[in-house]
Amino acid sequence: MATTPIFNASCSFPSIKGIDCKSYIGLRSNVSKVSIASTRIATSQRRNIVIRASNGHAKKLGMSDAECEAAVAAGNVPEAPPVPPKPAAPVGTPIIQPLNLNRRPRRNRASPAVRAAFQETDISPANFVYPLFIHEGEEDTPIGAMPGCYRLGWRHGLVQEVAKARAVGVNSIVLFPKVPEALKTPTGDEAYNDNGLVPRTIRLLKDKYPDLIIYTDVALDPYSSDGHDGIVREDGVIMNDETVHQLCKQAVSQARAGADVVSPSDMMDGRVGAIRAALDAEGFQNVSIMSYTAKYASSFYGPFREALDSNPRFGDKKTYQMNPANYREALIEAREDEAEGADILLVKPGLPYLDIIRLLRDKSPLPIAAYQVSGEYSMIKAGGVLKMIDEEKVMMESLMCLRRAGADIILTYFALQAATCLCGEKR
Ligand code: PBG
What we know:
- The protein is of the alpha/beta class.
- It is about 40% helix and about 15% strand.
- The strands form 2 sheets. The chain has an 8-stranded parallel β-barrel, surrounded by 9 helices. Strands 6-7 form a two-stranded antiparallel ribbon.
- Strand 8 (about 260-265), helix 8 and strand 9 form a beta-alpha-beta unit.
- Helix 7 (about 240-255) crosses helix 8.
- The longest helix has 26 residues, at about 20-45.
- The radius of gyration is 28 Å and the shape is elongated.
- About 40% of the residues are buried.
- The structure holds ligand PBG.
């Protein structure tokens, strides 16, 4: 990749003005051509030029300034192109008196340059966290319900995918493991095996890419023979405090392997404070906690559960995940998580819950994350494959809307595709 400041400038342009990708790309190429030319001159001159305050050597093009002014004063005004004629309206257009409006908001949307100037929200690859599915295999296995997503071999496919993401500016990932059935138990103890799939993968990635930001998922469901995020009592109750005990061990194990941000997605009460204390007790004061603050009991998680084969064996997750009908309840969760020491508050799913993102954005000074979940991703993909919608445009619009609602970062399976689009390059 070229490293001139100009290349970087032109690459960052569409990431500043994200949504109207195509038209900005057109605009950008002109802009960058001009600036490349002028910068080349500037750099070649810089080496041996002495900068003077006077303009003693101004180049002569013809008449002097005084002669020009005298000519105009004498009435010999030079020619410039005429004002173009008014564009014609189609035959049959009614002839009317213009409306007497003192505000016409369309003036501020009249051209790509004007729209770019007044765009309120921006989006860049730096805002994305890329969720990646990993498994023990050597090959990458396509996930049927999520076109374009794979269970990646932790040693090869994963490393390649991370390299691709970093090349377009996505340097944050979150790992989701597909755990062998034989290792699943009712208490999910594999979750804190220091040599389990996740800790092993973290160590491999950190060895290759020390500056990669690794988020981990803290919850028992991939490790639980019941497919629930917590330990299930014989009457079906999900045991809160006992589960939190396990989650603390899981978070510490992930931190020990090198995780930067542990992300409890289980929705047990009190787990943020307990995990903070457990991390601190082990010397992991610098490991952050991204709490799934408002995680709803949503049907939009369907494709994810297929990806990890983590469907609950019975019942649903409604005694711990939130009721989709509830708004104020998100504030109760947010206050607890803030008080317990969360560094980032997450809302999940994303697009159907924009009001919750906005609520937390307005009520908390903490960074807000939005999770554009598997069902949201798959619907856009399916609509695109069926040619019912323009996949790329809907993808960029949905991500921009999450930013507009107040999300600082977005966990999205589109991270690589969207960042590639923002960099203006098809790969
Ligand atoms: C489980 C977990 C889930 C997701 C992330 N972590 C599923 C669930 O709660 O059942 C869903 C992500 C997605 O649908 O993309 N701890």
